[in-house]
Specification:
The strands form three sheets. Strands 1, 2, 3, 4, 5, 12, 13 and 14 form an eight-stranded antiparallel beta sheet that branches. Strand 9 and strand 10 form a beta hairpin. The protein is about 25% helix and about 30% strand. The chain is globular.
């Protein structure tokens, strides 16, 4: 086979067939106000990360009213886009669109590090990963966490990696996913008491559990790509992936590095999880955050679309989101509502 044909077919093998791994992401946020507001200042954390396991091929921000978004990186290396709208308006629409290429990664890791070994490394881990070992606003060190740590240890093979997997599975099996059961500022105490929540709650709970056992853990904001098959797990993924942005956890073990855990879905598949931002907890990585001046109340709606960017033949899909652009809207400073991650 000629070289140029081999090269072309190799590229297509990444983009089509059963291993489609190029995705188009559309995230639409609509704010509606019950009166005129002005001087709206906003920041977005919606651009997918670009590294060895995924490539952000394109990204754009559109707002209505129109504003210019300027990007920079924050302390954790996440992309932040900021914009402001000074004139009066009664609605704000923010739409971001990205194309991401996912690179297959190994699903399992080999680690000989035991929990006892992990304990011996605590001082050095605290020096290198202080932010991800210390309690944070959404991941406090509650007394109830110790009981969950004990249960996870009992389920594990006493290795650090086995403990992390057991902890994620424990939360998945013990707590029930229920849309709307909590709100964006809910605490893990609410989740523990009621035994239900959404991905934001379960991720915070797992982080608190791992940190309590001396394992660095960080919050990951992103998108879940649902599997195109039947079954309870696939159906749940389609529900979660179509609601809003998703959240999960990355834990750190010295002989592995950072690896993913999804207590909401129960299993972690790297190529299904598109990473946008890392942080200590949700407070570091809200998709949209801002303030505005005015006495008006506000309502928030979010529309997320995640779909393959090419079909099985390698042809680019140009289907547009069903969401339609909002029409141009004909002194108190208030924070904008924040999106809960489902």
């Amino acid at each position: 086979m000629p070289y140029h044909r081999r090269a072309r077919d190799a590229d297509l093998s990444l983009l089509c067939g059963e291993c489609v791994n190029r995705y188009n992401l559309v995230h639409v946020t609509n704010f509606s106000y019950d009166g005129p507001v002005s001087e709206s200042y906003n920041e977005l954390r919606l651009r997918p990360r670009h590294d060895e396991s995924q490539s952000c091929l394109s990204f754009r921000v559109l707002t209505n009213p129109t504003a210019k978004a300027i990007g920079h990186r924050d302390f954790y290396g996440n992309w932040v886009h900021v914009f402001h709208i000074l004139r009066e308006h009664r609605a704000l629409r923010v739409e971001t669109e990205a194309v991401v290429l996912m690179h297959p990664q190994r699903a399992q890791y080999d680690s000989a590090l035991s929990l006892t070994d992990l304990d011996a490394l605590y001082s050095s881990l605290l020096e290198d990963h202080y932010d991800f070992l210390s309690a944070s606003q959404y991941c406090p060190a509650l007394p109830e966490i110790r009981e969950l740590v004990g249960q996870a240890e009992g389920r594990s093979d006493q290795s650090a990696y086995g403990f992390a997997q057991a902890a994620a599975l424990l939360i998945h099996e013990t707590f029930r996913y229920q849309k709307g059961a909590t709100h964006v500022h809910s605490s893990i105490a609410d989740c523990i008491e009621n035994k239900w929540g959404v991905c934001q709650d379960f991720s915070h709970l797992l982080i608190a559990l791992l940190r309590s056992r001396g394992m660095p853990a960080r919050y990951v904001s992103g998108y879940l790509v649902p599997r195109q098959e039947e079954g309870e797990s696939a159906t749940m993924e389609r529900v979660i992936g179509g609601l809003a942005s998703h959240a999960w956890v990355q834990a750190f073990i010295p002989d592995i590095g950072w690896f993913g855990l999804d207590p909401t879905v129960g299993s972690f598949v790297e190529i299904q999880h598109i990473r946008v931002a890392y942080g200590r907890d949700y407070g570091d990585v809200p998709p949209v955050r801002g303030v505005y001046k005015g006495h008006a109340g506000q309502s928030l709606s979010v529309d997320v679309l995640v779909r393959p960017a090419v079909d099985a033949e390698g042809t680019e899909i140009l289907q547009e989101t069903a969401a339609v652009p909002a029409k141009e809207p004909d002194d108190e400073v208030k924070p904008s509502q924040q999106q809960q991650q489902q």
